[in-house]
Amino acid sequence: MSWKPEVVADRGGDWCGNALRFATKEEAEKNARDLMSRWMLVQKWRVVESDDPVNYQWDDNLGLIELTGEPPAPPYVAEAAPTTGNTKVGPPR
Length: 93
Known about the structure:
The chain is α+β, with helices and mostly antiparallel strands. The protein has 1 helix and 5 strands. It has one helix at residues 25-38; strands at residues 2-8, 16-17, 44-50, 56-59, 63-66. The strands form 2 sheets. Strands 2-1-3 form a 3-stranded antiparallel sheet, with helices on one face.
């Protein structure tokens, strides 16, 4: 058994979910709250039981972790692009 988050994000009022399945109701609730904080159209959320296997974990510090049997990758950090020294905006002359 697992728990899956679902949201209503349109005027039709239909509950929609994805493939995320959590071991605990609390983890699924935290994921749903996080989604609602990032999506502007979410009107309400819920979590429901599922017969699907658990495939994700929610960590309060890292957020969503896919359970692949591998340790989670470190958070992605974008590197700054190298600069050319030209600080003017516009096409080169």
